[in-house]
Amino acid sequence: MDEKYYDAMLNVLTREDRVINPFFQYYPYEPTPYAVLKQLSDTYPLIPEDRLVDFGCGKGRTLFYLNYMFGCNVCGIEMNEKLYKDAENNRKRYIKRHPHAAEKIEILPILAEKYEVDQKDNKFYFFHPFSVTVFKKVITNIMQSLEHHPRQADIIVYYPTEEYLCYLDHKTDFRLNSGMLIHGAYEKNKQEQILIYRYDG
User: Fold this and answer.
1) How far is CA 23 from CA 78, 79, 160, in A?
2) Alpha-carbon gap, residue 59 to 1, rounded angstroms
3) What is the b/e burial string over 109-134, where b = at least 16 CB atoms within 10 angstroms of the residue's CB?
4) Mean pLDDT of 167-185
5) pLDDT of res. 20
6) pLDDT tens across 44-98, in order?
């Protein structure tokens, strides 16, 4: 799938470059391939009332694509200063072409574990952005929000690690709800899949 084509369609610049994060618990920038986002959106539709949080959003590709496809609310969390600035610049570029989305896109320059989960957040996206240590803290924050404001919520994990899955399966109230194998990639790499864990509130 032509990455340049989709960037142009969204009026953003999100292709990969060599950005090294200054904290060892956080991993270098790698955007979710558009082919993966297309398969996700074809299989897992969102609605305008949803609010998806992308932890380690990088330059914001997932945010802009899903907002474009579904008109949903999106929030990106990015601790790397350079990537945050790139994401903000992309937000301005995207809104210039899609002004109706201005109030539906938020990007925050903070550590993932410092994000205060909003009671409107109901979809949480992870593309292996950080260590399982940070992941556990983030999931704990999500669970606390769900306990205080009961609602159905999904955790969407692309390219899952055994550590992530073991924690979700054995230490949380989320349960595996569905999954999809990434076309043309799973045959070569078993991590090329998306798993969706659900909390029913």
Assistant:
1) 13, 10, 21
2) 19
3) eebbbebebeeebbbbbbbbbbbbeb
4) 97
5) 54
6) 999 999 999 999 999 999 999 999 999 999 999 999 999 999 999 999 999 999 9
Of 186, 82, 171, 75, nearest in space to 132 by CA: 171
Q: How far apart are CA 5 and CA 60, in angstroms?
A: 16
Query: What rounded mean pLDDT belongs to the chain?
Result: 94
How do beta strands 123-126 and 153-158 pair? parallel
Q: What is the pLDDT of residues 11-37, one digit of tens each?
A: 999 987 655 555 667 778 899 999 999
Whether this model's pTM surpasses 0.90: yes
Q: For the chain, list the domains and their CATH numbers.
A: 35-199 (3.40.50.150)
Report whether 85 contacts 107 (CB < 8 A).
Answer: no
Type of residue found at 193: Q
**Can you read off the two tokens belonging to residue 19?**
């950005």
Residue 112 DSSP code: G
